[in-house]
Design goal:
By secondary structure, the protein is α/β, with parallel strands linked by helices. Helix content is 28%, strand content 22%. It has a single domain, classed as Aldolase class I (TIM Barrel), CATH 3.20.20.70. β4, α2 (80-94) and β5 form a beta-alpha-beta unit. It binds iron/sulfur cluster.
Length: 170
């Protein structure tokens, strides 16, 4: 997996101050995507142990609320395995003290229907998924945590438990 950026003290992609990983690779090609340079899986730089250490150094700080995976698409087929491994390591180390958010161009329904074991494993340890492509005609700068109103900020664990989409509440 390649990535473009690890943003420190990020306030725009989930609650509190977070570390946000912008991965490479997205095949949704939304019109007016803010990060088209991330679409190519070969763009950016290799996600190596230095990048992993940087993320854990950030998460070690008490004031960091959690990690957000963005991109690109963290659930792009090229990224799922490494994203899953990283999520599992984070959960093992920090238990539930750090929240895990994922932004993806896939809808919740597509993720559930695809039912790949790796996706199920990712969902097991994810707190929130912001789903769906960016739709320019539904763009709303006042919509909290997402770019367009078709995208939903989903409480993953409650949605799995209730077998229907439950939206995240601050
Ligand atoms: S899913 Fe996100 S990264 Fe991918 S094209 Fe759409 S807005 Fe851009």
């Amino acid at each position: 997996m390649n990535y473009h950026d690890i943003k420190h003290d990020d306030m725009n992609n989930g609650p509190g101050l977070r570390v946000t990983l912008f991965v490479s690779g997205c095949d949704h090609y939304c019109k007016n995507c803010q990060n088209p340079e991330t679409w190519d899986t070969k763009s950016g730089i290799l996600f190596d142990t230095t990048a992993v250490d940087e993320i854990f150094d950030q998460l070690d700080k008490d004031y960091i609320s959690g990690i957000t995976f963005s991109g690109g698409d963290p659930l792009n087929k090229n990224n799922r395995l490494i994203v899953c491994d990283l999520i599992k390591c984070i959960r093992r180390k920090y238990k539930n003290t750090k929240s895990i958010w994922i932004y993806t161009g896939y809808t919740w329904e597509e993720i559930i229907e695809e039912a790949w074991p790796i996706l199920t494993a990712i969902l097991e340890d994810t707190d929130v998924i912001v789903d769906g492509t960016f739709e320019e005609n539904l763009a709303d700068i006042n919509y909290h945590w997402a770019g367009s109103t078709n995208q939903r900020v989903i409480d993953v664990q409650r949605s799995i438990e209730d077998k229907k989409i439950v939206l995240y509440e601050d």
